[in-house]
Structure formats: C-alpha cells, structure tokens
Amino acid sequence: MPEGKIIKALSGFYYVLSDDGTITQCRGRGVFRKNKITPLVGDNVVYQAENETEGYILEVIERHNELIRPPIANVDQAVLVFSAVEPEFSTLLLDRFLVLVESSEIKPIICISKTDLTTSEEMHAIQNYASIYRKIGYEVILSSTKEKDSLYNLQPHLNNQISVIAGQSGVGKSSLLNVLRPDLDLKTDDISTSLGRGKHTTRHVELIQIGEGYVADTPGFSSLEFLNIEAGELSYCFPEIYRIGAKCKFRGCTHTSEPKCAVIEALSTKEIEQFRYNHYQSFFEEIKDRKPRY
Q1: What is the pLDDT of residues 7-36, one digit of tens each?
Q2: Domain 3-61 belongs to what topology?
Q3: Which one of 28, 74, 79, 147 has the largest count of C-beta atoms within 10 Å of its C-beta?
C-alpha cells in the first residue's frame, strides 16, 4: 500500500501527498472513529487509492509529536517571530513560547524581525539577547523589513522541514511568508485569510510548500498557558538550567530555594542569565498554583 503525508484536512476529507507529488482526497476508515484516532495534518499515513484522485486512509503511522492548537502532527520546528521594535522585543513572552515548544519536543528557531527599524542602542540590546540565546544553543536569525533578508536568512532553515510560524501579533509573520511565497498575498496580521480561514469560510489547517519545506497556515499556539507541563518538568524546557541542574546536591531539586543548588550558584558566574532564571521562577509558581483540571 502507498504511503503519504496529510497536507490538508477539510470537512471530513484528508488530502494526502505522495512521494511522486500526487494528491489524493481521502476519507478515514471507520476504524479510526472506533479507536478514537483523528488523522491530523502532518500525519504520515498508509492509504488505498480507489481511483486517480480518491481513496481511503488505512493507517496513521506513529507520530513523533502533535499539537492541539493548531491540530497538527510531526512538526519539526517552530519559527518564533518576535520584532525588535513595534511591538517591543519581550524576553518574557519569548521564553513562554520557548517552553511551550520545548515541551512538545519541537525544535525552536528564534527570528527577530524589523531590525532595520531600531536605533543603534536598541540594536545593541537585540544583538546582546541574540548572543545569549545562541549561547544557550538556540538558532537565532536576525531579519529586517527588506525582502532579501527574509529570503536569504530564513528560507534555508525551512527546507526539508515541517514548520509552524508563531509569535506575537504585529511582528511581521505575514510579511515574512509573503516574501517567501508572494502568490499567497496574505494580509498583514492575518496569516490565514487566503488559505481558507477567512470570516466566511470553513476553518482548516493546511501545509503550504515554501521552497523545499512545508509551513502550517496557522499562527500557532492559540493558548499560551502551561496546561500540559508539570512544575517538576519545567527545567527540561530551559536547556541551560537542565544542564547545570545535573550538578545540584539534591535529586529532584526545583532550583528555587534548595541549599547547594548549582543553578542558583550559576547566576553569579553568568552561566545562567538572571532574566532567564526569573522567568523560570515565575513559570514554576504559575504551574504550581494552577487549578487542577477534572
């Protein structure tokens, strides 16, 4: 049986792209409803073609991750777009996004847009933050409002990957995608209007081809709450805290108040930046105080 990837889901139909580039409109077999499996965009599937354009999905191949909002599977990376100015660059919001992405085992790429609109003082601060995040191990791309910057700096990172684009409103996500795929003609601050999610059309998620990769047509992460992360798991989502935390005296150290905590000691040597640790503490308390869900 042939295998393919679901690139669009709409009104009970799944559009499966095969290796040879053909797209087959498929329905899911009843066994999925029985087993409570919902095929998602991004799923790799085994399908049976009834004719040249229609068929049935027989099996969903095991996913390596999935997101609930947006509903998409097997995401390789999340491009987190934050502007240098207008709106002002926020490390607190960026770290919140990073935790959500890390918790889903998705590789984050930080893209700081509108760098050409900064003063020299603002640009110095942005470059300092970029250096800090690179030192942690993150890929950081600086992008301007000039088209060639988006093409040369971001495009290569999208090849052979399934990516979601996420970030705060007004940072230039649509502008970036318009440069990469001018035929999309996306409205500013509305990534998905022309892709079937306008006011009068059915909502759906779709993978659109950009270069040699695919990008989800959704802004991603409509919820920024830590609903599926436990307090004890938070350090995994801060790579430098997790790495240095292995040296703590007590196993299960929360890195908040314990004696001989290697993480707290690392603040004085700048191995861990104070603002990152402050965000860790804040998120830890937020998760700890979360009301239980029943």
Answers
A1: 999 888 999 999 888 999 999 887 677 777
A2: OB fold (Dihydrolipoamide Acetyltransferase, E2P) (2.40.50)
A3: 79
